[in-house]
Each structure stands twice: as C-alpha cells, then as structure tokens.
C-alpha cells in the first residue's frame, strides 16, 4: 500500500492502528468523487502496487483449483475469488478472455480476496497440459454431486455466463458434475458465482 486517501476524518482513528498517519491524506468528498471510479465512493481510497502474478506449480498434485473459462462479469469474478478464499482453494486460474482480476468492480466484489487468493492467467492448452486426467467440469448434464464423491484433487472448470464451458475443455474433461435442480420452480440455471459456491462447498467436504 502506497497511500490512503479519506474523505471522512472519522476513518483516521481506525487507520492509524494499522498504517502510519503519514500515509493517510484527508481530502474533500468532492475530490474523492473525482478520484474514485465508483458512483458512490465509500470515503476511502488506497493506492497500491499490483502484486506479481502467481505461477502455477508444475506439480499440482493434491491441489484444488478453479479454472474460469471466459467469465466476463466483474461481479461474478470478484464473488468467485471471495468463494475460493472462504473455502481455501489453492488457486484460481483465468482464461485470457476473462475480465481483468484487478478491474475495480472485481476488487469491490471480492472484498479483499483478490489480494489473498493465488491467481494467474493461462491459455486453455496450458490447463489441458497441467490438468491431465484431473480436469472436471461443472455442467448441467453431469453427475449429480449429491450422489457423487468429490475428486481429491484437480482443476474444476466453470464456464462463461451465457455460453458455458468451451468445446475444447468439454472434450478434454475427465468428468462432468452437476448441481441438481430437481426442485426448481422453473429456473433454467444457476448464476456461475452461485454454482461456484455450491461446487466449492461440495469439493472441500470431508
């Protein structure tokens, strides 16, 4: 963290407990509105260096990883990062056509998880090479997770909001797993972030 700007002086007493007062600058609400990309700024803004990208280990044995195949909505990506953080997944990998992890809306939705979860961007071919026989897909046509044992390790692929998982990943996946909708009142599908939460909870259960 380089600097912190606040438009509410009440924040100063809280921030002084964790950072030097010399790094905190009080500005007017009007200045905060001009600086922030948000329509309604929360009154605090920090300037940070972007962290170095994490690198996926050559050996992913024992790891539980999400691969996001063209997730375009920043709210969805931020929420998935928060879910991965909550359930302790080892990595979240994005395809190159995902929204930028450091998009301000992604950061807002992640509630800080974007800075804790290990992330990187990899092409589908690299995932296929790394995952080998441990590539899995969340898909409505797959095995019901309520009657399936979760894999011990591997890469679980979550697809685009409207198009789903790309064909090349579908062809290479070892298995498909589905979230049962047998009690649905008419909903055609789950939001991808909601599906990520259900799959993560199933995946990490003992």
List the helices and strands and how they pair.
Elements: E1 3-6, H1 11-15, E2 24-26, H2 29-35, E3 44-47, E4 64-68, H3 74-87, E5 91-94, H4 104-110, E6 119-121, H5 124-131, E7 135-144, E8 154-158, H6 167-172, E9 175-178, H7 192-204
Parallel strand pairs: 1-2, 4-5, 4-8, 5-6, 7-8, 7-9
Antiparallel strand pairs: 1-3
Helix pairs in contact: 3-4, 3-7
Task: Provide an overview of this structure.
The protein is elongated, with a radius of gyration of 20 Å. A 6-stranded parallel beta sheet has the order 6-5-4-8-7-9. The mean pLDDT is 93. It folds into 2 domains: 3-47, no CATH class; 64-204, Alpha/beta knot, CATH 3.40.1280. The protein has 206 residues and is α/β, with parallel strands linked by helices. The chain is built from 7 helices and 9 strands; from the N terminus they run E-H-E-H-E-E-H-E-H-E-H-E-E-H-E-H.
Q: Assign an overall shape.
A: elongated
Total strands: the figure is 9
What does the average pLDDT come to? 93
- Whole-Å distance between the termini? 38 Å
List keywords for this structure.
alpha/beta; three-stranded mixed beta sheet; 29% helix; elongated
Describe the structure concisely.
The chain has 206 residues and is an alpha/beta fold. The chain has 7 helices and 9 strands. The strands form 2 sheets. Strands 6-5-4-8-7-9 form a 6-stranded parallel sheet.
